[in-house]
Amino acid sequence: MGITVEGANKSFGDFQALKDVSIEVPDGSLTALLGPSGSGKSTLLRAIAGLETLDTGRVVIDGDDVSTQPTQKREVGFVFQHYAAFKHMTVYENVGFGLKIRKMSKDKISARVHELLDLVQLHGLADRYPSQLSGGQRQRMALARALAVEPQVLLLDEPFGALDAKVRKDLRTWLRNLHEEMNVTTIFVTHDQEEAMDVAGQLVVMNEGRVEQTGSADELYEQPANEFVMSFVGEVNMLGEHYVRPHDIEVVLDPDERTEEGMVQRIVALGFEIRVEFVLADGTEVWAQLTRSELQRLELREGQIAYLKPVQAKSFSGSPAPNHPGASTLRGSHGGGEAERSAAV
Amino acid sequence: MSRATGSRWGLRVLGLGYVFLLLLLPLAFIFYKTFEDGIAPPFEAITSPDGLHALKLTLITVAIAVPLNTVFGVICALLLVRHRGRGAAIVDSIINLPFAMSPVVIGLSLFLLYGTHGWLEPGLAEAGIKVLFSLPGIVLACVFVSLPFVVRETVPVLQEIGTEQEQAAETLGANAWQTFWRVTLPAIRWGVGYGVILTTARVLGEFGAVSVVSGNISGTTQTLPLFVAKQYENFNLPGAFGAAVLLALLALLAVLVMNLMKRKEVA
């Protein structure tokens, strides 16, 4: 079921959480609302669920304008960051809650609940209370509870935000597989761009209550519409007027007309990937992403002088206002370093 | 012994000593005094017609006042926490008034309102309702003095559980009524339960306000605490102690019931 939001505005007192937001979520897609805290992404999700009432604007689910419908009638499954588990109910009762409300027979509830507990890999834990589950298990229970009533759309509000890194990664993969299996239109909110890119087919980048750009992970990364998207989706350095990705900086030991001189401040090894932090002559701090073999070849030391060559840079000329792309791409020469990097990766 | 353990022991002795001297010792002494000459004297005093009537009146008062304040308290707490509108802060502090006021003053204010020349007296008299010196007056006084307990115990629990569980219930199709009964109330039941116990204990023991509005007529409008005082004034010490112990046992029973419910829940 496709979801459309048109011209959504919402204020909380003086704070305008949504400013004329319109989005289009195709039927069966998995879409991420990505943005920093306070960008309005959660408010937008809650407005789709009917947990917030829009000041102006429309929410359309599967062709029906549901703007004035209460949450109960919208048939949305909602998963909260902090699980919102019914603490006084067992896992079984939690998952069966919506079915009980719908006055389904006990046999049918039992069959459906066990089916879902299998799906979320919680079989055998039906009689536990939420307090006896781990965070990841609780969130899977919450997901089963939301799916039990066969919602038209599934809405997840920072579903993995309260979990530790390892569990997050596992659940991410698991959610992607689940979506492929169930094919229910899903929107999930996150502030973690890596998570959004990993899970979602379509990303909606939000900032200060506005939609900055919508597109696939590749589109956002390769053709960011403005400075905000460029710097929020992926890492970025400022070199004068230009935005450069850390992996688009080539480090060389001999200067030429396109290089900038910098001093190695810090070398941080993050496994295979090495983060080398430079300070330029004008005080600008820049970091380059190298591979372990590149670092070994260059034999960089902290305090050493080296030369930075941007392989690819972007500048957003003209007015810096968002929604005005006007981006021009500067392409540096693809020297031997680039080829070597590809070989190394 | 290190200095830390030393001061910890000091604190323990101080705290427990305080509780023992001021709470347990007097209570134990009353039990001791009551049964000094066997079980017969206190038993006789309680089973006297006046004693039984006082017990009955007290239990009826509890049976009316406690449910009233429970329902009101939960609704009020919901309004204060979930639908916080203008004036909520004022309502919040007004609810505390019964804590701050002396029960005698509360009794007197009821007397002024419902008494012979009170504001509401003409209308009520016409309708044939007698408030003072009868059950309604006693219940009113008890409702007044015990009004804050359920509200005060429920508000923090409501704040703590937040609104997410209720919103989750909504997205699963539950209407407001279903959400309240199936999600909110079970989540706050220990707060409410604790408030109910405190309310019950307070209504059982209320003396000041009731003594003003009830007229303290033996066998008619005398509640158990008033009966205790009357026996004491009449130098019927076994009777006074017996009734006092009965009161204490009722309160203990209330606390015990709650503990049992809680244990069953955890098991």
* Helical stretch tally of chain B: 14
Reported CATH architecture of the largest domain in chain B: Orthogonal Bundle
Note the gap between the termini of chain B: 40 Å
Strand content of chain B: under 5%
Sheet-strand content of chain A, in percent, reads: 25-35%
Helix content of chain B: over 70%
Total discrete domains of chain B: 2
Computed over alpha carbons, the radius of gyration of chain B is 22 Å
Detailed description of the structure:
The complex is a heterodimer of chains A (345) and B (267). By secondary structure, chain A is of the alpha+beta class. Chain A has helices at residues 41-49, 91-101, 106-119, 135-148, 165-182, 193-199, 217-222, 227-232, 292-298, 336-344; strands spanning 3-12, 15-25, 30-34, 56-61, 64-65, 76-79, 153-157, 185-190, 202-207, 210-215, 237-239, 242-244, 249-252, 260-270, 273-280, 285-291, 305-310, 312-316, 327-331. Chain A contains 10 helices and 19 strands. Chain A has a 6-stranded mixed β-sheet, with helices on both faces. A 5-stranded antiparallel β-sheet of chain A has the order 13-17-14-15-16. The two termini of chain A are 40 Å apart. The model of chain B has no long low-confidence stretch (mean pLDDT 88). Chain B is mainly α. Chain B is globular, with a radius of gyration of 22 Å. Chain B starts with a helix and ends with a helix. Chains A and B meet through strand 6, helix 2 and helix 4 of A and helix 10 and helix 11 of B.
